[in-house]
Structure to design on (353 residues):
C-alpha cells in the first residue's frame, strides 16, 4: 500500500509539477520572442536604411509601410520580455548583458528612446528620398544608445 | 685607443627626427585622440570618427614604409634590438641623468611596435565592425561573416581601452624622463634636434 501511495504521489508530482521545465520554457520563449522582435525591426530598418543610402529606389508607400511597421513594433512592451534568467550569462543564444537587470529603469528609458524616435516616422518618411535619412538617423541613434550599454558583443 | 678611453664621449646636438616623422607623430597623436574622443563621446552618427580612422590607417602605412626607406633613426632595422640590448638599457633607466640616446632607445622601440600594432588592429576591427544600428557600419563589414562583424565591435571597444593605456603610458614615460631623468623628449619631437651621446 505504501509503495502504491508513494508511486502515485511521485506520478502526480511529475504530471502537475514538471520540475524546472516550465521555467526553461518561459526563458526560451522570451528569448525567441525578443529575437523575433529584432528580426522584424531589422527587416524594416534595412528597407529604410537602404532607401536613405540610395541602395534601394525610394518608394513612398514602401517607406511609409516600413516606418509604420517600426512604429507598431515599438508599441509592444519589449522590456517585459527581459525576464529573469535570460541574460547572456544565464541562457545560450542571449546577447542581453546582465547589466540590464541592474539598470532596468535605464533600460526602459533606452527603449523609450526608440519609441520616441519611431513616433510619427510613417508620415516623416513621405515626400521624397531626402526625408528618409533623418528618420533612419534618429532610429539608428536609439539602436546604438541601447546596444552600446546593454548588448553583448562576443 | 678610443675603446679603452674611460671618459664618456661628449654630448652633442644632433638631428634625430626628420620632418616627415615629426609631422607623422603629431598627426597620429591628433587623429588618435580625436577619434578616441569621438568614439567615446561623439555624435551617434560616427562619420567623423570614421574619417579619423581612415587618416590613422594612412599614417600607419606611411610609418611602415618609412620604417624601411626613411632615415636611419626611423628604420625598424636600426632601432629594433634584441633582449640583451633592452636589459642593458633597463639597467640604467632609473639613473637620475639624461639618456642622451640618439633616436628610439631599445626599450622605447618595443613601445613603438606595441603602439603601431595596437593601432593597426584597432583600425582593422573598426573597418569590419557592424554595431547593427543602421547608421554606422564599417566599410569592409560586408566582406566578413556576420558573427565576425558583431564580434569586431567588441574587439574595437577592447582595443580602445588598450590605446588609452598605451597613450597614458607614453605620456607617463615622457614625464618620467622630463622630471626624473631631466631629459626633455618633447622638444626634439618638435624641432627634430636632441642632445645625444654617440655610442
Amino acid at each position: 500500500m505504501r509503495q502504491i501511495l508513494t508511486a502515485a504521489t511521485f506520478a502526480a508530482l511529475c504530471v502537475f509539477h514538471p520540475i524546472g521545465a516550465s521555467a526553461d520554457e518561459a526563458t526560451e520563449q522570451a528569448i525567441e520572442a525578443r529575437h523575433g522582435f529584432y528580426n522584424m525591426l531589422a527587416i524594416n530598418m534595412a528597407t529604410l536604411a537602404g532607401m536613405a543610402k540610395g541602395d534601394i529606389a525610394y518608394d513612398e508607400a514602401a517607406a511609409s509601410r516600413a516606418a509604420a511597421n517600426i512604429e507598431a513594433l515599438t508599441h509592444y512592451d519589449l522590456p517585459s520580455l527581459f525576464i529573469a534568467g535570460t541574460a547572456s550569462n544565464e541562457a545560450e543564444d542571449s546577447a542581453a548583458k546582465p547589466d540590464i537587470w541592474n539598470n532596468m529603469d535605464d533600460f526602459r528609458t533606452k527603449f523609450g528612446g526608440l519609441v520616441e524616435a519611431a513616433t510619427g516616422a510613417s508620415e516623416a518618411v513621405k515626400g521624397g528620398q531626402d526625408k528618409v535619412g533623418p528618420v533612419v538617423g534618429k532610429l539608428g541613434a536609439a539602436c546604438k544608445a541601447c546596444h552600446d550599454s546593454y548588448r553583448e558583443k562576443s | 685607443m678610443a675603446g679603452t678611453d674611460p671618459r664618456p664621449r661628449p654630448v652633442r646636438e644632433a638631428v634625430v627626427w626628420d620632418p616627415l616623422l615629426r609631422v607623422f607623430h603629431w598627426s597620429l597623436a591628433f587623429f588618435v585622440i580625436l577619434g578616441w574622443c569621438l568614439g567615446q563621446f561623439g555624435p551617434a552618427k560616427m562619420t567623423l570618427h570614421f574619417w579619423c580612422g581612415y587618416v590613422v590607417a594612412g599614417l600607419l602605412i606611411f610609418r611602415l614604409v618609412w620604417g624601411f626607406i626613411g632615415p636611419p633613426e626611423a628604420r625598424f632595422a636600426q632601432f629594433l634590438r634584441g633582449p640583451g640590448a633592452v636589459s642593458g638599457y633597463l639597467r640604467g633607466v632609473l639613473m637620475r641623468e639624461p639618456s642622451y640616446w640618439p633616436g628610439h632607445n631599445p626599450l622605447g622601440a618595443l613601445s613603438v611596435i606595441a603602439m603601431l600594432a595596437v593601432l593597426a588592429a584597432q583600425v582593422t576591427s573598426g573597418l569590419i565592425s557592424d554595431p547593427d544600428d543602421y547608421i554606422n557600419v564599417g566599410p569592409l563589414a560586408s566582406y566578413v561573416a556576420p558573427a565576425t562583424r558583431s564580434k569586431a565591435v567588441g574587439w574595437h571597444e577592447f582595443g580602445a581601452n588598450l590605446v588609452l593605456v598605451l597613450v597614458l603610458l607614453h605620456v607617463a614615460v615622457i614625464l618620467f624622463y622630463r622630471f626624473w631623468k631631466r631629459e626633455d623628449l618633447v622638444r626634439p619631437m618638435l624641432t627634430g634636434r636632441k642632445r645625444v651621446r654617440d655610442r
In short: Chain B has one domain: 22-94+105-184. Chain B has a mean pLDDT of 95. Residues 22-94+105-184 of chain B form a domain with the Fumarate Reductase Cytochrome B subunit fold (CATH 1.20.950.20).
